[in-house]
Amino acid sequence: MASRAFLITIIVAAAAAAPAFAMDYMVGDSDGWKLGVNYTTWAEGKQFYVGDTLMFMYNNASHNVLKVAGPDFQSCNISNAIGSPYTSGKDTFTLAAPGKKWYICGFGSHCSQGMKLVINVNAEGPAPAPGPTSAAGEATPFKSFVWMVVAATAAFSIIMS
Ligand code: CU
User: Which residues surround ligand 1, an ion (CB under 5 A)?
Assistant: First the structure.
């Protein structure tokens, strides 16, 4: 009986940990990245976390993706993009750091017509200690936490069975 309880505990613990794993979002869902979609509405109510990904799907003859800073997002200024424009038609961004991220389309007046997306990325799990921390270093405490929960519940179920 003990081994069966142990297996069930592992499955339950894994399932409980699953919602904390990274999410992949397709911007605009089935509409993708185009004119006539309200991306403020799309982002509303979604909780983005470090490690999640954003995928922009679009016709690259008519659209692209520029990462910009807040003021350039507000004014739809396309001349200060952070890095090169993304033009593949299928661009994926991994949300590597917490904070606000701004994306606009650089074609014509598409940005002022609504092809603009701002999201707020939340830090995953407990806030990291102040000071320089690598992105890889931040993920480790969360993983050990999951394994601690798995080990503790497994031990508990063996004792109880
Ligand atoms: Cu566009």
Answer: 63, 105, 107, 110, 115
Q: Ligand 1 centroid to 123 CA: how many Å?
A: 30
For the chain, strand residue ranges (E) read 24-26, 48-49, 53-57, 66-68, 90-94, 99-104, 116-122
**E strand or H helix that includes residue 42:** helix 39-43
Ligand 1 centroid distance, CA of 111 (Å):
7
**Is this model's pTM higher than 0.70 or not?**
no
Confidence of residue 133 (pLDDT cuts 50, 70, 90): very low
Question: How many secondary structure helices (H) and strands (E) does the chain include?
Answer: 4, 7
Paired tokens of 64 = 């692209």
Contacts of 152 (CB under 8 A, 6+ apart): none
